[in-house]
Structures are given as structure tokens and as C-alpha cells.
Design brief:
elongated, mainly alpha, Four Helix Bundle (Hemerythrin (Met), subunit A), 10 helices
Length: 232
Amino acid sequence: METTQAYDYGLWGMVVFNVVLFGGFVLSFLRPRRKAEWRSLGVFAAFIVALFAEMYGFPLTVFVLTSWLGGGPSVATTYSHLKGHVLATLLGLPTWAALLICQIGALMMLAGLAVMWRGWRQIHTAEGALVTDGVYAHVRHPQYSGLFLITLGMLIQWPTLLTFVMWPVLMFAYYRLAMREEREMLRKFGPEYDGYRRRVPAFMPRLVRRGQEARAGTNGLSSPAVSEGQRS
């Protein structure tokens, strides 16, 4: 029986730091004003608290899975930090593969932040007008698309039972918010926004765009969009 146990958790300061860091980024980009926006942001906040609490605080998923499976690795191995990557551990992947998965997740998170930033920049130079160019020529809700990329990257980087359950809830909350905002945009801009909505997907860009749609995206409206942020 091993007497030396590696327990790489209990780092609650890291939990607070990461929650404040990612929460602050998203808050600054989305800038919620109404109750529905704050509710959706609250779901995101719960998601990142659950994620980082397990990443650095207490490995609940590892604890539950080892209890269910039984006869697993010793406590000394199970509660070392790298073994907290549930997917890599369950699949029996080597250390380099676990680190590679973490880096893939990190790259997705950075890509999501970049998309959110580009959407935010266009919105805050729009002065209340409708924008269909730039990143808005590819998706109608780039800031929410960026948020989805960030959270998906988090799931890949550090999958847990709680975040797997919460992620669809988070997606649904922002989907409902986006559809609500689109109804407001239709009332405000009418056929102008309806035409934009018909040719541009909501969250995921089309891999292949028909020539007519591509021309519509470049020759159509040129003022900045106001979607998830298309509200001034």
C-alpha cells in the first residue's frame, strides 16, 4: 500500500483567479443589461465555477468515477493533477496525449475569445445601426458563437460530469436569448434584417457559400450589426 499520496488539488485561489478572469472577459464582451441576459450569464458563471472547482479545487468527477468503477489506480495516482483529465485517463492515453488534448481545448478557447472580440469591436462602432459585414457576414451572433467555442474548449480541456450536464443548458439559454433578440431586430429593422437572417446562419458559418449568397454578403448592407449586442 502506498503511503505517499499525490494530491494536486485544494488550490482555491486558482479557482477564484480563473473564474474572475474568464467571467470578466465574457462580461466585458457581452455587457448584459436586461434580466434575460443576466440569467444567461448566470448559467455561464455556474458552468465555469463548476469547471474550475474541479480543475483546481476538488476532483469530484474522479472521486465519483473511481467509486463507481472500483479497483482503479491508487489514490496517489488518481489524485495527481494530470489524472484529473477524465477522458485521457479512462482511455488509458499516455501523458503526452493528455497534454495534447488540453492544448487543443486551449486553442479552441483562444479562438472563441478572438471571435467574441471581433464581434464586440463591430458592435461598439455601430452606433445602433445594423451590421452585416465583417464577422457578421458569416454568423448572426458571433459573440455567442465565440462563447460556445470557449465552453466547448473548456469541456475538451477538462471534462467533468457537472459541466457535461450543464453545457447543453448553457447552449439552450443563449439560443433562447439569441432568438429573443432576433424578434426585436425584426421589429426594429423589418425586411432589412429578415433578408440578412435568411442568408446568414445564426451560430455556425457555412463551409461552402453559394455564389449568390457570397455576393449578397459583400454587396448588401454595410453598416455594423447589433445582434447579441445589436442593441444600443
